Amino acid sequence: MNKIMYLDAAASALKSESVIRAEVDFLQNGYANAGRGICARAAAVDDMIAHARADVARFINARPDQIVFTSGTTDGMNRIVHIINDRACGAGIKNKTVMVSDLDHHSARLPFELLSDSDMCKIVLCPMDENCNLICSDLPRADVFVITAMSNVIGMPQDVASLVAAARKKNPDVITVVDAAQYVVHNKIDVQKWDCDFMCFSAHKIGADTGLGVMYMKNPERWGWPDKFGGGMVSKITGSAAEHNLALQWEDAPAKFEAGTLPLTQIIGLPVAIDYWSANRPNLDLIKYLYDRLSGNSRIKIITPRDATLFTFYVPDMHILDFGASVGARGVCLRVGNMCASWIHKVLGIRGTARVSVGPWNTMDDVRQAADIIESVVK
Ligand SMILES: Cc1ncc(COP(=O)(O)O)c(C=O)c1O
Asked: How many of the other CB atoms lie within 10 Å of CB of 165?
């Protein structure tokens, strides 16, 4: 059997022993629900969740009450649309202008595109230079600004702080929303430096489990209504819908935004993953090696710069799915297709690309063998 070279960290990271052990230990020895019980075991789980929240807050330079656990970046981005469009904010984003960019992943832009499609808001584009970097000059005025901190196709960090500041110059009330799903993999996030209103990432991209994400809210109390309703988020209910006098008193944030049982096991694993990942970031020399080795190959068109966090390319005259299947059959696990980022592919004039991304588990040997196989397949 072929050796498997898992070169798809940007899609989802493999899990460290420490994360697996923490989750198994919790499931075997400490499991109970959080925020529901008063027995010692339930209290211990409450403590673990509080500690995890505090660790996540430290990780991105935020306060614990600004951290809301979601099920992932997609969930966070969709929820933000509803939170900022809430009924306590009057018209919400109706008739407002939402600035998106061609770097966006479908999960960051589609929720707003769909609102625009039903004439709820107007979409404008953030300008981008010829190297696919978002630029601050000539930003259109916007009420909401969706910023992809690092594209999952181009793999270059964007200057989020300057983009936020430039958008605020045009409109001091602009709501800035950062998709940090890829940025968090390679860079330290500082939400205070960015000064954004919202930021989302997925735990599974930094070696924690699936089904868990983080949504940072700069001012949780600013948003009168939560977007989800259920257990754990309401402290008092008076009146009734039948008598049209239902009144709800929310718990304080973040509980107000965390209706229902949280993904406890995944949350327990997250601080362990953060520790592991912070000490073992992916070695980007592997990406540079691929760039140097394959940039001379006339059959391959590389679209990422040498110092990107990803190696993205295509093979003219070869269907990218055929390419992916051929290298995949020989053990090279990479991503092919439009990467859920169809806008950047449209800008580049190509239907699909292949993407190599590395995690802490990958070695120079992996990329050397992958390059051998890629070269033999495109020959
Ligand atoms: C830039 C970017 N945004 C958003 C997402 C969506 O993340 P998830 O599928 O974990 O919700 C991804 C996942 O690939 C991504 O790369």
From this structure: 14
- CATH number of the domain where residue 58 is located: 3.40.640.10
At 88 the pLDDT is 45
Same domain, 251 and 299: no
Q: Whose CA is nearest to atom 15 of ligand 1?
A: 181
Mutation to probe ligand 1, out of 102, 215, 340 (largest number of atoms < 8 A from CB)? 340
Rounded to the nearest whole angstrom, what is the distance from the C-alpha of residue 72 to the centroid of ligand 1?
8
Task: Give the residue whose CA is nearest to atom 14 of ligand 1.
Answer: 11
Encode pLDDT of 49-88 as tens digits: 999 999 999 999 999 999 999 999 999 999 999 998 865 4
* Domain of residue 321, residue span: 5-15+281-378
Task: Please classify residue 353 by burial: count the beta carbons closer than 10 Å to its beta carbon, then call 0-12 exposed, 13-18 middle and 19+ buried.
Answer: buried
